[in-house]
Design brief:
Length: about 110
């Protein structure tokens, strides 16, 4: 059951970030950003598989990244590259690391 909840949180986070990108970006940068966001789940899961980790690790990391991004940018991912984006980037990385660590400990018991 826990794995299903992690997958649902991951899919919901992906959708939240996608909606924020579609709403917040326009012009030339919109297409590449949406394409990169679309292929991210498959790329991350394949990378974890090549490195020898399971997809559960990738799913936990992705869910943490997307929900942390939404929280740090106020559900507007385009703010990450706007003025003052370096502080938000640092906050995003710190929050993601913390959420990934805590969730990993809770779910995997390690």
């Amino acid at each position: 059951m826990t794995v299903v909840v992690i997958w649902i949180l991951c899919a919901a986070g992906w959708g939240v970030v996608l909606a924020g990108l579609r709403r917040g970006l326009s012009g030339r940068e919109r297409g590449p950003a949406l394409f990169a966001h679309t292929v991210t789940p498959a790329g991350v899961v394949l990378t974890f598989a090549v490195l020898g980790y399971g997809s559960l690790y990738a799913t936990i990391a992705l869910a943490a990244e997307w929900w942390s991004l939404a929280a740090v940018t106020g559900f507007r991912p385009a703010r990450l590259v706007a003025g003052g984006g370096l502080r938000r980037l640092a906050a995003w990385l710190l929050v993601t690391a913390a959420v990934t660590y805590v969730t990993g400990r809770l779910v995997l018991g390690r």
